Amino acid sequence: MSLLSQRAVDLLRLLENGELTSVELTRAYLDQIERHDRDVKAFIRVEPDRALARAAEIDERRRAGKPVGRLAGLPVAIKDLLCTAGETTTCASRILEKFVPPYDATVIARLKAADAVLIGKTNMDEFALGGSTENSAFQRTANPWDLTRIPGGSSGGSAAAVAAGMAPLSVGSDTGGSIRQPAGLCGVTGLKPTYGRVSRYGLVAFASSLDQIGPFARTAEDAALLLEVLAGHDPLDSTSVERPTPKYSQTVGTPLEGLRLGLVREHFGEGLDAEVDAAVREAIKVYESLGAQVKWVSLPHGKYGVATYYIIAPCEASSNLARYDGVHYGHRTDEKKMLAELASERAALSNAGQHAAADALDNPLVRMYRQSRSEGFGAEVKRRIMLGTYALSAGYYDAYYLKALKVRRLIRRDYDAAFHEVDLIAGPVTTSVAFRLGEKVDDPLAMYLVDLYTVSANLAGIGGIAFPCGASKEGLPIGLQLQGPPFAEEKLLQAAHMFQQATDWHRRLPPMVAEAGRTPA
Amino acid sequence: MTLTRQDVEKVSLLARLRLSPEELERMTEQMGQIVAYVESLSELDTDNVEPMAHALDVANVFAADELRPSLDRGAALANAPHHDREFYLVPAVLGE
Predict the structure, then answer these.
(1) CB pairs below 8 Å between A and B: how many?
(2) Which residues does A307 contact at the CB level (< 8 Å), separation at least 6?
(3) Which of A8, A101, A270, A326 has minimal Cβ neighbours within 10 Å of its Cβ?
(4) Is A393 a catalytic site residue?
(5) What is the mean pLDDT of chain A?
(6) Percent with pLDDT over 90 in chain A
(7) What pLDDT, on a 0 to 100 scale, did the predictor assign at position A518?
(8) Are A130 and A153 in contact (CB under 8 A)?
(9) pLDDT band for position A521 (cuts 50, 70, 90)
(10) Is the pLDDT of residue A82 over 70?
């Protein structure tokens, strides 16, 4: 079997036994990137030399019998919105194209301390705003299962990297489904932890009350291993909770006795693709065969999730993205040109006798802000900043933002009630399999509705996991989503692992990985 | 309520963005659609519902009031498009 299709936990065992070196392993992934990333475009930047040097250094320490970290020698791909000290962190935006963070995000520091090999930074929707990774300023990532389709988003590069055998593990972030949705569409396992489980320090903020960092992997067991490294209290993030991190990697293998699984009535209605519906129902039967009790529950306010999200998230985004001002860091417009243009506009208006209009022109500082931001941000980012600014502006605050915060409470109460009756909620991740590149780019609202089944978990602050549970006739992955009450990551992982013990969907590989296994390394 | 091009232009100043006439046109149309969609929330009665600003019911978090190292000036200025090693520089705001 090719290294590229193996589970991280197995690779770790080979490394520990001395049957494999991190250099060999890292090289195998770099070769796969070399072969296929010109088509997949999962990575914004790959760091071959740095990764191999790091791998060699870890091999050396391991050989010498010195202590090594939890992930020692395993390559990990990182979504390009986590700050890496001394290495460009772009958020797939022109405005941060040259931004070199002066510090590491806490999760990066944790990965380094665990001796992971950071192999490169992955593509994403600009500032994580989007659900298809088509909003990247640099490149469009393709779905490794079908290069004409989207990988999902916004963590599309991280999901595609694992699916394409370019890394055994990767890290993403999820604000409205940005881990679970691409995991579902790319046929990998992705977990969005409870808000507060993982430190967000050094994560470039999109919507601070919704953002959460989490792992991608081939299996729940691998995701458990990575989450164990990522999670934990951090004094640098006051929203990270002070509670011990469970030993996910040790408990993931314990099956859940008497699992009560809830199906949400509203999830199986109009709009759900028939193949997805069938695959999800089949997955539920698997759980029943494993002894789970299945019960219908209701999340009556779930249908307001997308509307609530598309008020709250843009409001927070408009506020967070105000920091890109062309002053402290990031792109600034050509100042000479900008000042010359402003002067000629003023002269033209004055000559025409329009003195009031001339006086109403932007002052040079405001024009610098506006011009820099307009050159640096892409269309979707501008749209969300505009929506958020509008919703927060005088006279509209109560009607939009405050209203949305109240509905958010109702959505959370629905979940609290449901979790009185069931342990976890199971359902689809998305209404359909991956759509074609370009299919929805001109229709923002249609793109937003892709988040139907995922946004509510972010609004409620709860955790969710997505993993493959079927395939369409064309062979595209179909995902199952499990959601749990706050801090139920252990259960989510255990339940996903139970399913993966009983089925083979997580073992299916896209051709570019299956074929790599047939050619001798 | 309908969103006019003038509304959108005003918001673009508040948002410190500058939109071309074509962008303004598209933005007005697309924001109009999205705003109409999110207005579905108005059908819910939320008079007695406490707003939920945050997913965690945590009290304020205090940090000990002690000196800790922070970014030095050089590192803080390193990404600035324009600086004089001491300050960030911006176009003149007053007087011309």
Answers:
(1) 175
(2) A404, A407, B37, B38, B39, B40, B41
(3) A270
(4) no
(5) 96
(6) 95
(7) 64
(8) yes
(9) very low
(10) yes
> Which two structure tokens, joined as six digits, stand for A22?
């991190």
State yes or no: is A154 an active-site residue.
Answer: yes
What does the longest C-alpha to C-alpha distance in chain A come to? 83
> Are residues A445 and B96, on separate chains, in Cβ contact within 8 Å?
no
DSSP A401: I
Query: Torsion angle of alpha carbons A389, A447, A163, A424, nearest 10°?
Result: 80
From A397's Cα to the closest Cα of chain B, the distance in A is 13
Q: What is the pLDDT of residue B40?
A: 94
Which residues face A436 on adjacent strands? A149
Angle, helix A305-320 to helix B21-38, in steps of 10 degrees = 140
Residues of chain B in contact with residue A410, where contact means CB-CB under 8 angstroms, are 44, 46, 49
Residue with tokens 């890109």: A324
Q: Quote the pLDDT of residue A1.
A: 61
Kindly state the tokens that stand for A423: 């342990």
Spatial CB neighbours of A305, under 8 Å, sequence gap ≥ 6 = A411, A451, A452, A455, A456, A459
Instruction: Decide if A301 and B61 are in contact by the 8 Å CB cutoff.
Output: no
- Chain B residue whose CA is closest to A101: B79
Name the minimum distance, in Å, from the CA of A102 to any CA of chain B: 6
Phi then psi for A479, rounded to 5 degrees? Answer: -105, 155
**A200 closest CA partner among A86, A310, A320, A311:** A320
d(CA A132, CA A436): 10
Residue B69 with chain A: CB contacts under 8 Å: none
Strand order in the sheet with A293-297: A43-46, A117-122, A75-79, A169-174, A212-217, A189-192, A463-471, A477-484, A424-428, A260-264, A293-297
The phi and psi torsions of B86 (rounded to 5 degrees) equal -125, -40
Q: Note the ipTM here.
A: 0.95
Preceding peptide of A154 cis, ω within 30° = yes
Closest CB to B41 among A326, A367, A403: A403
Which residues fall within 8 angstroms of residue A94, CB to CB, at 6 or more apart? A137, A331, A375, A376, A377, A378
**CB-CB: which of B18, B50, B58 is closest to A374?**
B18
- Chain A: nearest CA to B6, how far in angstroms? 12
Considering only A229-233, A288-292, A499-503, B67-71, which range has the smallest mean pLDDT? B67-71
Token couple for A327: 């002053």
Closest CA to A285 of A320, A312, A261: A261
Q: Which two three-digit tokens encode residue B49?
A: 């519902």
Any idea what the Cα angle at residue B48 is, between residues B45 and B51, rounded to 5°? 95
